[in-house]
Design goal:
Structural class: alpha+beta
Shape: elongated
Largest sheet: 4 strands, mixed
Order of helices and strands: EEHEHEEHE
Number of helices: 3
CATH topology: Alpha-Beta Plaits
Strand content: 25-35%
CATH architecture: 2-Layer Sandwich
Radius of gyration: 18 Å
Length: about 150
């Protein structure tokens, strides 16, 4: 039987004290998976979900833009993870592409997260809560502002 510490650990992308590991023990030893690693797995899984434009709310995306300018990318932006007794609960904050059906996007995101965490970390995921914060509209091409050439 695999055991996880019974406390709840929110992730912290800063690697601070909230980045408490989720230890898994068996007869041959203990494996420690930091919650920030689980959050990163979630962020990476969501890259391949059609219709996800970005993760995080406005403030998180602004901070993410600053990180990217400094050539560091936070793959766990917009992801919150709680580990409790071998189970992972994930909260997502998503910006959707227009005109993707939002319920389908949430379902696809859930499936991708559950598959990634259960396959790669070996932890059960009973809940993935999805909040869609915004819809990204396609940008009009620059030529649309100009008169057509005849």
């Amino acid at each position: 039987m695999t055991g996880i510490s019974p406390s709840t650990f929110p992730t912290s992308s800063t690697g601070g004290p909230e980045d408490t590991p989720a230890p898994v023990s068996d007869a041959r030893g203990t494996t420690v998976i930091n919650t920030s690693v689980i959050a990163k797995l979630v962020g990476l899984a969501l890259r391949d979900v059609p219709g996800v434009h970005a993760l995080g709310g406005t403030a998180a995306r602004a901070l993410g833009a600053i990180r990217e300018a400094l050539t560091t990318t936070d793959r766990s932006q917009g992801v919150s993870v709680q580990v409790d007794e071998g189970q992972v609960t994930v909260d997502l904050s998503i910006v959707a592409e227009y005109p993707v059906p939002l319920q389908q996007l949430a379902d696809d995101a859930r499936k991708a997260v559950i598959l990634a965490v259960e396959t790669l970390a070996g932890l059960q995921v009973p809940a993935v809560n999805v909040t869609i914060n915004d819809v990204h509209l396609p940008e009009e091409p620059a030529e649309a502002d100009e008169a057509p050439v005849q």
